[in-house]
Amino acid sequence: MTNAAIATLGIDLAKYSFQIVGQNAAGVIVTTKKLSKTQLLAMTAKMPRCLIGMEACSGSHHLARELVQQGHDTRLIPAQYVKPFVKVHKNDERDAEAICEAVQRPTMRFVPIKTEDQLDLQALHRVRERLVSGRTSLINQVRSFLLERGITIAKSRRALETVLPKIMANTSAPISSRMRALISGLVDEWGHVDERIDKITDEIGLLAKAEEGAVRLTSIPGVGPITATAVVAAIGNGAAFEKGRDFAAWLGLVPYQHSTGGRQKLLGISKRGNRYLRTLFVHAARSIARFLIGKGTTPLGRWMTALAARVHGNVAIVALANKLARIAWAVLRSVSPFNANYGKARTAN
């Protein structure tokens, strides 16, 4: 068979070689090959326009953009949605065949292809998240060393920053000279990590002011430059979702359902999708909840006050995070900033 017979192409990505499976319009496999990236792009450049599917993973967005430039209809699929199509005895060829089958499903959900700017912004967030996690590990290690010497400190980074210099200056404290040297080294490392976090945070803040979507998102209560830019990096303009509920479900901010026989059973939140973004929305909800409960005069404030009166506090926080996520999607799609009195305006009309 020639490349002209290929209507759908499934590509299983790897670091150095790509396994492909091509099907014709009737769904019959007409080619299976293992190619390098250069060979793959050379082959697809000579092919007529076809549907190409890949799993969304590291490197997939760059390759997808190149295939789109060649004129192909390229789509990225979440890995968990490909798994049901994999036959027994998993291997690269079976994976590529499963991708080829999955990309043709009319109900399949796809991942939007990220731009270079989105990937840069996403990289900044990933580096910052890793540095913050590393700083937490440093703080916990210092705290544990002190605890082993009988010195207990309150659970707070600020508390440790305040008390630690006094402890190190106290020569009568039960800390050996070797341990003092180790803790001093950890404190120096902590300061270096702080500088890097501050530098990346400032850079994200500048990008938030330059990105139109992020500027609109910061008009939402509780949503600052970090959350706003993380949303833009993850979903762009939100076109991949038909409604805000879909975005909230993608973040895992909806109940996990285990229903059968017509009996509905809802459990805790599903925690699927982007964990980092979900965490940011929960933190945003916690930061503004106290200003809304019993004090809010806006529709959002009244809604939160009524909700907090009938459910557990943590449930109310997650529900507020869900609503903030849905508002964020609406702000991106409507190309207008958040209007705190939107509900009032609709009622008046």
Pick out its properties.
349 residues, alpha/beta, Nucleotidyltransferase, domain 5, 3 domains, five-stranded mixed β-sheet, two-stranded antiparallel ribbon, 7 strands, 56% helix, 10% strand
Helix-and-strand structural type: alpha/beta
**Spatial order of the strands in the main sheet?**
3-2-1-4-5
Order of helices and strands: EEEHEHEHHHHHHHHEEHHHH
Global outline: globular
Helices, by number, come to 14
Helix content: 55-70%
Query: Strand fraction band?
Result: 5-15%
Domains (count)? 3
Q: Mean of residue pLDDT?
A: 90
Walk me through the topology.
Elements (H helix, E strand, L loop, with lengths): L7 E5 L5 E6 L5 E7 L1 H10 L4 E5 L4 H10 L3 E5 L1 H4 L9 H11 L13 H33 L8 H13 L7 H34 L1 H6 L7 H11 L8 H7 L4 E3 L8 E4 L5 H18 L6 H10 L4 H22 L7 H7 L1
Parallel strand pairs: 1-4, 4-5
Antiparallel strand pairs: 1-2, 2-3, 6-7
